[in-house]
Amino acid sequence: MDNKERILHAARELFGTLGFADTTYKRIAQHLGIAEGLIAHYFGNKDNLFDAVQTRILQDLSERMAEGEFYAHHGSPCSSTRPRPSCAPHKTRKAAAVHSCAVLRFFPSSTKARTNA
Q1: Model pTM score
Q2: Are 60 and 102 a contacting pair, CB within 8 Å?
Q3: DSSP designation for 96
């Protein structure tokens, strides 16, 4: 994962945990062990970083919704009681996004919530 992706990932985590006001360049930089200037280099200011995080969240959600719609129409090859070798975790996010078990991997907490409801 390159620095820009690491920054986006950490910012997403910190914005979600601390909120916008308490998430600072300094906290993100300390979390990652990088210089604050590197964040400014990629995103300019905190508003741009927050916009980039929101855009990424919406892209991820859109991909997952499309995946769910596909599997709702075509079924999942992982629905058998015995796990298939093809359901093993993948090393790349892109590969996981197109994999038949991706919805469960991306939404483990929502799966638990439905089971407990």
Answers
A1: 0.59
A2: no
A3: H
